[in-house]
Amino acid sequence: MKQEQSKKAFLEAQDVFPGGVNSPVRAFKAVGGTPLFIDKAKGAYLYDIDGQEYIDYVLSWGPMILGHAPDPVIAAVQEAVAKGTSYGAPSPLETKLGKLLQERVPYLERLRMVNSGTEATMSAIRVARGVTKRDKIVKFIGCYHGHSDSFLVEAGSGIATFGLPDSPGVPAATASQTISLPYNNIAALKECFEQHGTEIAGVIIEAVAGNMGLIKASEEFIRAIRDLTREYGALFIVDEVMTGFRASYTGAIGLYQVEPDLICLGKVVGGGFPVAAFGGKKVYMDQVAPLGAIYQAGTLSGNPIAMTAGYETVKRLTPDLFQQMLDRVEQLCTGLERLKEKYQIPLQVVSAGTMFGFFFNDHPVCNFEDSKASDHHLFAKVHRLLLEKGIYLAPSQYESNFMSTEHTKEDIDRTLQAFDHVFGEIYG
Ligand SMILES: *Cc1c(COP(=O)(O)O)cnc(C)c1O
């Protein structure tokens, strides 16, 4: 694998950006080596500046569900650009995408557009706090909800420990308002509500977690959150920034018979542009300014180019295309299971809709502790060897991988052959 150009570009970038990147995981720290610098992307493929082609399963961390640079979306965006790139005044394009989201995502009686998933979750907990006039937020260990202060919090040992900042720069006072609990643990959740229930503004969760590897919440766990939040008057927030339009046709919430109060969307809804949204029950969302007193705003929110890309992307996601992606995920996962048997590898293959992942672990992975106990050294090795064979997977076992409508059966076959060779090199 040639890397001269990427190496040079990475060095140069390090004189400009901390660590040479504008978002930390891009630096490949978990797997080592040089991150690929990208020249262009089309369909299921990524092309680096050394001129090599890769089958891309990162897809910009989820958004590019129609593959890269889909012709009809690009054409619509080009047309939109010519009409002006930002108005700072309402345009019908916002309502068009908003309505489409209401049609496609359950429980979105009212929503608001923002520019990143971080903004969506940050705003959703502000609504929860504003509505309930309480300060405490419950999150689950290993779930990622963007980089705002309230969410960069780690639990101490034991149950319902008040959070300590996970990052310098997060005020201890803010972190102390976040309670971090183990994922999929109903007893810990119950105990937390028994102790602090009347102070809790909301509970936020990735119902299908994609940021500690891919881990699904149990139906009972999601139901317990709903029951307890209702009993204690707290809001139930589902963070679908990654899972929206992916974990199922109607997102992660489509997998559970449970109604949330607020939902956060991002990634896919912008079709590769900076778009996210938060919304849910009208009684709560109508308390957001200008109707209500809970303040939230954005100069570029509802940007016409971004709205166009989002609309053209979501509109094209039909049940048929979704099924096609599910078939590809199944083909890949079945193939990996076969290789697991062939080489007797401690491997856990997981999928949820168009998302998939794997852990080098003897046991099924149900929470962050399990995920941490996986063999990260082996993952790094496999990742590196696959990259050399033109397969671009997320550069950490804590990240999910994604399928697009452009990945073909042949792409999956080639991917499985690459895995076969790599496992052969390691175990053969
Ligand atoms: C990516 C992600 C976010 C943050 O979104 P950004 O657009 O990166 O700010 C929040 N929550 C979840 C579940 C995510 O996967």
From TrEMBL:
It comes from the Bacteria. The modification N6-(pyridoxal phosphate)lysine is found at residue 267. Its EC number is 5.4.3.8. It holds the Pfam family Aminotran_3. One of its GO terms (biological process) is protoporphyrinogen IX biosynthetic process. Coiled coil: none annotated. The keyword tRNA processing does not apply. It is found in: Cytoplasm. It catalyses: (S)-4-amino-5-oxopentanoate = 5-aminolevulinate. SUPFAM superfamilies: PLP-dependent transferases. GO terms for cellular component: cytoplasm. Belongs to the class-III pyridoxal-phosphate-dependent aminotransferase family. HemL subfamily. PANTHER family: GLUTAMATE-1-SEMIALDEHYDE 2,1-AMINOMUTASE, GLUTAMATE-1-SEMIALDEHYDE 2,1-AMINOMUTASE 1, CHLOROPLASTIC-RELATED. HAMAP family: HemL_aminotrans_3. Homodimer. This is Glutamate-1-semialdehyde 2,1-aminomutase. It comes from Streptococcus merionis. The gene is hemL1.
